Amino acid sequence: MLNSPCAPEHTARPEQPTSDDTTTTRAEADLVVLLDSDRRPVGTAPREGVHGFDTPLHLAYSCWLFCPGGRFLLTRRALGKRSWPGVWTNSFCGHPRPGETVAEAVVRGGRHELGVDVEAVSPLLPDFAYRAVDASGVVENEVCPVHLARTTTPPVPHPSEVSEHVWVEIDELRAALAAAPWALSPWLREQAEQLDHRAWDLIRDYATNDDQGVAR
Predict the structure, then answer these.
(1) What angle do CA 198, 72, 47 make, to 5 degrees?
(2) Is position 51 annotated in a ligand binding site?
(3) Neighbours of 103 (CB within 10 A)
(4) Annotated binding residue at 48?
(5) Residue 169 known to be catalytic
(6) Considering 142, 164, 169, 190, which one is annotated as catalytic?
(7) Rounded distance, CA 32 to CA 23, Å?
(8) What distances in angstroms separate CA 182 from CA 11, 88, 89, 176, one per listed residue?
């Protein structure tokens, strides 16, 4: 079981590459891409300060991660997160750096947040965008394409990003969305609302078939 990515018993976090690597300066790593109303890049802003009470539109991504058994990784946001602390959500989210593709950002984000090697990155909702305000007034305002991905690596989450995680069946995820939507992040709820029956079938096929991506 300890070699299975669906096993939660791992406690030692492997050493991860820092954001300040040989190809990206610390300043570049801390920037997010700002967008205009037509979703065109118009500049950058420091990641740490971009989310506030009047958050500008910016580029992000959301990832739904699956293990070889076809189960989905549901994660709980760390209690120290500025927005929606402690809320259960999709596997992980993040922000592409300037000049970085969304797929590249997903791979990097999987390593940073969950300590996993991500593969077979496939678009699910490439045009997804949302705006939401949490209880403290912090605003999320993102163009946030949603991607599916797989891993064969057991998660060892970064404690500042993820406080808990659990692998669930697709039907269990859908049941949670129907029974307790208030317990899940607004972006996960909105993503699910945009999926029809055909899309859910494609997700299930993707999760259980190593050779198949998702095309909508």
Answers:
(1) 100
(2) yes
(3) 17
(4) no
(5) no
(6) 142
(7) 17
(8) 29, 10, 11, 10
In this structure, are residues 83 and 51 in contact, taking their beta carbons and an 8 Å threshold?
yes
The count of other CB atoms within 10 Å of the CB of residue 201 is: 12
Q: Is 142 a catalytic residue?
A: yes
Cα 154 from Cα 1, distance rounded (Å):
10
In angstroms, the CA 12 to CA 186 distance is: 31
User: What is the dihedral sign for C-alpha 58, 41, 65, 160?
Assistant: negative
pLDDT tens across 61-98, in order? Answer: 999 999 999 999 999 999 999 889 999 999 999 999 99
Each residue's pLDDT tens digit, 181-215: 999 999 999 999 999 999 999 999 999 886 544 43
CB neighbourhood size of 181 (10 A)? 14
Please compute Rg for the chain using Cα positions. Answer: 16
Of the residues 6, 48, 63, 93, only one is catalytic, namely: 93
What residues contact 91, with CB distance under 8 A and at least 6 apart? 63, 64, 65, 72, 73, 74, 75, 114, 149
DSSP 20-70: S-SSS-HHHHTEEEEE-TTS-EEEEEEHHHH-STTPPPEE-EEEEEE-TTS
Encoded amino acid at 67, one letter: C
User: Rounded to whole angstroms, how far apart are CA atoms 139 and 135?
Assistant: 10
